[in-house]
Amino acid sequence: LECTRTQTDHTHAKMAAATEAWDSQKQQTFVEGGLKDPNSQEFLPCSALGGVGEVTAKKLKELGFDYAYNIIGQFMVNNLDEEATDHWLKTEVGVKREDLRKTIVGTMQKWCDRHL
């Protein structure tokens, strides 16, 4: 039983590290850019934010948050309050994983710090 638990913990740690590295690059790309694709000039989808994967993007779109600017707007409606936005992501959007909420909120905070 202990061996299985250790293997499971190791697998989760590897998955978390891979997600973190991917999100940090995704975060950096989003934070450094604007809300439009530089090539097409179309607004970036909600999935452009670090921490927003396929499942969360689907939930956001169902709520009418199709684009990254919609989510940034919600962050502004929450007065750039990280705790209130985390609560919104958890209760309204249904993002259960704290690490994902933290990444999403952190991405928005960094974007706002840079562009506002």
Characterise this structure.
69% of the residues lie in helices and 0% in strands. It has 116 residues and is an all-alpha fold.
Attribute tags:
5 helices; disordered N terminus; mainly alpha; 116 residues; single chain; 0% strand; globular
SSE topology:
Elements lengths: L1 H31 L21 H9 L5 H10 L4 H12 L4 H18 L1
Helix pairs in contact: 1-5, 4-5
In total, how many beta strands? 0
What structural category characterises the helix and strand content?
Answer: mainly alpha
Task: Give the % helix.
Answer: 55-70%
- The number of helical runs is 5
How large is the radius of gyration? 15 Å
The quaternary structure here is: single chain
Can I get a quick summary?
This protein is mainly alpha-helical and 116 residues long. The protein has helices at residues 2-32, 54-62, 68-77, 82-93, 98-115.
